[in-house]
Design goal:
The strands form four sheets. An eight-stranded parallel sheet has the order 11-10-9-8-5-2-1-14, with helices on both faces. Strands 3-4 form a two-stranded antiparallel ribbon. The two termini are 35 Å apart. 40% of the residues lie in helices and 13% in strands. The chain has one domain: Alpha-Beta Barrel (TIM Barrel), CATH 3.20.20. The chain is of the alpha/beta class. Bound molecules: phosphoenolpyruvate and cobalt (II) ion.
Length: 446
């Protein structure tokens, strides 16, 4: 892997998809320069630790749980929101670990998930056309010219929001909150009355019993008191990602220090594009989304470019076919990539191939489609003898109504009740626990 990272202008010269048009280039340069001086949010050594964990995923020894909002917003950087999201992720992880009997690598889709690819540069409402919302690091969600014009001051705002989020997450996961003996307390309020919540309660009681037994025989392992938790986001906005890339003093190589794991989106994975060129140089564990249009040859070529040393743990393919396409599309991809000897972890994103607009005008997904895609993913890997390495879900710690179905049976009319996502619909808390129980069952039969 080359260690000479091209400069920002060189990356733009290659041609970068999904970038905003900033009206004031001087202000961009000033803010990028400030960002370059800010301390790292994560350490290179932590990225290496995660890479080792992802290598275990690629060998079939662990399962990845990656989750969080489609798009974080600055307004949602509150103690309440972050802790709720983390709590559900911890609950999901414990379900997968206990009911699925497999070690779980926990990866938040948070503390940096502020840039979004869009299908169109502009958005028109009632005859008014403005730049599309590209995530809080670029512009504001309000449909006004002031909010929608890309503002480079937001680069620092995104850094600060990410720092605040990650600081809270780090305090939570090491400061006793993630202690397994707290397993009951993560199950609060409305969730308790749902059937997934009751199932969780029963499982937590079993875990308590096991912990009591371990305590009685004198086992007091550190592993019970804290969890390893890492951060991830789509590294989309080149100004931000490039400014947050630093040369590691130990290895003399570039790392993206804005998150432990970063991925390339479905719309920016062009082999000769700026994103692949950037990702090729950084040393982090990385992901690349693969939709139904990706051929096995595309995937093999991406792997050769992104991971020329074929290092285990370095590359994760995150497939997002859609429930209707996965059973026909995935087998050839996995088979050929495996036959080519490519070291990769396979992760299922059952969200982005299953989005549609409800009759009531909301961007939504059916819980059943999400589950059907994960089931297809497991079935295909089982048939090929490869390891279904994990899931990437868009979820939140609140009882929003953005996805249809699940035990609460949210219907199209019910979406209006509490729809808060600024981009894609997220599983709510009960739906997230339900998904975890269903995936745990799939894991037991692998
Ligand atoms: C996403 O993960 O929010 C996303 C935009 O996904 P994709 O690149 O797969 O469309
Ligand atoms: Co999304």
């Amino acid at each position: 892997m080359s260690s000479t990272l091209p400069d920002l202008a060189a990356l733009h010269a290659i041609g970068a998809a999904q970038q905003p048009t900033y009206p004031d280039q001087e202000a961009v340069a000033a803010n990028v320069a400030r960002l370059r001086r800010m301390p790292p949010l994560v350490f290179a050594g932590e990225c290496d630790d995660l890479k080792a964990k992802m290598a275990a995923v690629s060998r079939g020894e662990s399962f990845l749980l990656q989750g969080g909002d489609c798009a974080e917003t600055f307004e949602e950087v509150t103690a309440d929101n972050v802790s709720k999201k983390l709590r559900v992720l911890l609950q999901m992880a414990v379900i997968l670990t206990y009911a699925g009997s497999v070690p779980v690598v926990k990866l938040g889709r948070l503390a940096g998930q502020y840039a979004k690819p869009r299908s169109s540069d502009m958005e028109t409402r009632d005859g008014v056309t403005l730049p599309a919302y590209r995530g809080d690091v670029v512009n504001g969600f309000d449909f006004t010219p002031e909010a929608r014009i890309p503002d480079p001051h937001r680069l620092l705002d995104a850094y600060n929001a990410s720092a605040a989020t990650l600081n809270l997450v780090r305090a939570f996961v090491t400061g006793g909150y993630a202690d397994l003996r707290q397993v009951h307390t993560w199950n609060t309020d409305f969730v308790k009355s749902s059937s997934a919540g009751q199932r969780y309660e029963a499982m937590a009681a079993e875990i308590d019993k096991a912990l009591g037994f371990m305590g009685a025989i004198g086992v007091d392992a550190e592993e019970l008191k804290r969890v390893d938790f890492h951060s991830s986001h789509e590294a989309l906005l080149l100004e931000y990602e490039h400014a947050m890339t630093r040369i590691d003093s130990r290895t003399d190589k570039p790392y993206n220090v804005s998150g432990h794991f970063v991925w390339i989106g479905e719309r920016t994975r062009q082999l000769d594009g700026a994103h692949v060129e950037y990702f090729r140089h950084i040393q982090n564990p990385i992901g690349c989304k693969l939709g139904p249009s990706a051929s096995a040859d595309d995937a093999i070529a991406l792997a050769a470019r992104l991971n020329p040393d074929n290092e285990a743990g370095r590359l994760t393919f995150i497939t997002r076919f859609g429930a209707g396409k996965i059973r026909e599309g995935l087998p050839e991809l996995v088979e050929k990539v495996t036959a080519a000897g490519v070291q990769v972890a396979w992760v299922c994103d059952p969200m982005h191939g299953n989005t549609f607009e409800s009759s009531t005008g909301y961007k939504t997904r059916r819980f059943d489609d999400v589950i059907e895609e994960v089931q297809g993913f497991f079935d295909v890997h089982r048939a090929l003898g490869t390891w279904p390495g994990g899931v990437l879900v868009e979820m939140t710690g609140d009882d929003v109504t953005e996805c249809i179905g699940g035990g609460e049976e949210i219907d199209e009319a019910g979406l209006a009740h509490r729809y808060e996502s600024v981009v894609d619909p997220r599983l709510n808390r009960v739906q997230s626990l339900e998904l975890a129980f269903l995936v745990a069952e799939m894991l037991r039969t692998v």
